[in-house]
Amino acid sequence: MPKDDESKGSFLFLIVTGLGILIGYKKLTSLGSTSAQAAEVSKGLSFMELKLFDSWPAALAHKGRLYSTSVRSCRDTVSVRVSRLFCSCRDSSVRAALSSASNNAHTSSNGALSSSGQGVTESCLYHTSGTNGINSNACSRDLRVFDGYDDEYGGFVVDPDKLPANQSAFALMLRSSLSHWKMKGKKGIWLKLPLQLSELVPVAVKEGFRYHHAEINFVMLTYWLPEGPCMLPGNASHQVGVGGLVINDKGEVLVVQERYCSPACVGLWKLPTGFIAESEEIFEGVVREVKEETGIDAEFIEIIGFRHAHNVAFNKSDLFFICMLRPLSTQIMIDDVEIQAAKWMPVVEFVEHQLIQGDKMFKKVIDICIARLRKQYCGLSAHQSTSKFDSKESTLYYHVIDSQDDCEACSG
Q: Which segments constitute the Nudix hydrolase domain (predicted)?
């Protein structure tokens, strides 16, 4: 037979054999196939595959020019799941990635199949020899891992907006992610679970995560991967409170009586106080609290001093900043929810109040405030500053000395 006719015949044989493989694969994967039928079809497919690739190199020889002597890749497979079936290449090593989740399979530059999306593709090395078929050295899967970003300390922060709501899917991805992070040498893992995904908390705890802190709409869990003691920082150890000392031109101080308080503080006239909100400056927080409780607009002058106490609430420490403010209005409008009463009280009367005289620390605070009014003491004023370490603007509180008389510099 002429060489051209032989080539045509070989290519025709390839086409027919390929169609047979496709038909057999459909039979193999059909729902009606029994295990015995599947085994028989699989056996026939293996034989057909070997025949196909046995004749492939010869078929590619045309006019004395050999285009390929061995098959290096299986590019045009039907799908990722059948790559094992169609990569039975004799005397060659074939890399293929088997995907169990993605429908967006693509072929990489080296002929290996992988799946698109956030995941870790593990490739297998298949080695075939003679007519013995495939000897798989490793199993491969496309493992899904959590989205997120690396922190600056070698850890990883999981993106809470891309977590699966299903517990089983979450558990599988969590295990895959932990294996991936360990392989990558990650250290601390931060997992934020929103309130709507609270059913995932016991799943994470079962895998080794621990509580770190909680807010009104989420809980934060952590996992320390390296051997040895955990080096992650603990939860916030302090709460921050402020008190506003507002004195007008008449020598009167703004005082309030709280609606809800301990029995020891019933009837006590005190300064407007409250807690600093998240991402709020001290000088902003004290102005806000005075406004909310009394309706008085005020301007921050300086921090007179601060108190540091421990085991105040839920075993947390407490920082309480006493701030001096200048009133910008005079008409009092109390917050009926929190405040029982509010008024302007002469400083002398306020100092002589029985509860204040019986509290050494609070009396000391009042003495400092009076010394400030007499220009015998200066507090800490707020100054905006930027650090090169984080490139963020922050507030630095310090005492400014502009003359020999320190108090004159603070008189305002």
A: 237-367
